[in-house]
Amino acid sequence: MKLALVYNPKLAPKRLNRVNKLAAVLESRGHLVSHYNGIEFDAARDAGDADCVIMAGGDGTARLVIQKQSDPGALPDLAIYPTGTINLLARELDYPRNPHKFAARLESGSQQLTTRLATIDGAPFLACASIGFDAHAVASVSEALKLRIGRFAYVAALLSLAKNWPRHPVTIDTGEERIEAETLFILRGKFYAGPWTLDRGANLKTEKLRILALPHARRRDMLLLALYAMLGSRRPHGHWRFLEADRVTLSGGEGIPVQADGDIVASAPVTFELTPTKVTFL
């Protein structure tokens, strides 16, 4: 296969070494591998004849690569080699970290999945978006600390908010109902913040956005949510709302951060939408 390997060449040495090992394994198995800078990559210009675009990185890297394309629906088959901090999408799609197993997965083509792209104000996101204490924590994350301790940097960011805990009510309009909430999650898969789950019904094949809305975002609500996710609970708190919609308009809370795939990408008010544009993961 002709494979376009797309990544940030300024990755930390340990992660860059993993990318290079993957390239060596793929080439040893007879594949033609071309390397591209993820910040500049344009599939139509750079890899129009590729059989697959492999995005080496985390959820944010994959989102940025897809977002940069003038026509994401025209992309070749995609794959994600997980070298990021959380790697929700790679976990959802069951991409292995072992380069030999990853290569075998691509060659088999047995787990191919086509999914519709979700957007925030027209810009794609892939795994999870949120507004509320989760987004405030992402906005507070130290990138230097994130490189050192990985996902636990988000825990440190949450703790830093403890004194001045952020609570901003917003209005959620699905077209069928309007509700008030202080925290909102838009979920494209069942995983959140690693191996944990907020909504067992969320997956990339779902033809609706899955929404979890918490009417209150007090400290105790955050603890309840964390326990719910980590313990694999099946019974959510009685006041939480699980919704489905093609389009969600969020109003109020002007200027508060919105996160997607681990990065702050916008501020309220915003519109989330499940678009007709589709991409395929090999």
Give an overview of the whole structure.
- By secondary structure, the protein is of the alpha+beta class.
- The chain has two domains: 2-111, 3-Layer(aba) Sandwich (Rossmann fold); 123-276, Sandwich (Tumour Suppressor Smad4), CATH 2.60.200.40.
- 29% of the residues lie in helices and 33% in strands.
- The strands form four sheets. A six-stranded antiparallel beta sheet has the order 6-5-18-15-8-9, covered by helices on one side. It has a six-stranded antiparallel beta sheet with strand order 14-13-10-7-16-17. It has a four-stranded parallel beta sheet with strand order 2-1-3-4, sandwiched between helices.
- Strand 16 and strand 17 (263-267) form a beta hairpin.
- Helix 6 (133-140) packs across helix 8.
- The two termini are 12 Å apart.
Largest sheet: 6 strands, antiparallel
Percent range of helical residues: 25-40%
> So how many helices?
9
User: Structural class, judged by helices and strands?
Assistant: alpha+beta
Major sheet strand order: 6-5-18-15-8-9
Give the uncertain stretches in residue-range form: none
Termini separation comes to 12 Å
Count the strands? 18
Number of domains: 2
Question: How are the SSEs ordered, and which strands pair?
Answer:
Layout lengths: L1 E6 L5 H16 L3 E6 L5 H4 L5 E6 L1 H10 L8 E6 L5 H6 L5 H10 L4 E8 L2 E3 L2 E4 L1 H8 L2 H7 L2 H9 L9 E4 L4 E4 L1 E5 L3 E2 L3 E2 L11 E6 L4 H12 L10 E5 L1 E5 L5 E4 L2 E5 L2 E12 L1
Parallel strand pairs: 1-2, 1-3, 3-4
Antiparallel strand pairs: 5-6, 5-18, 7-10, 7-16, 8-9, 8-15, 10-13, 11-12, 13-14, 15-18, 16-17
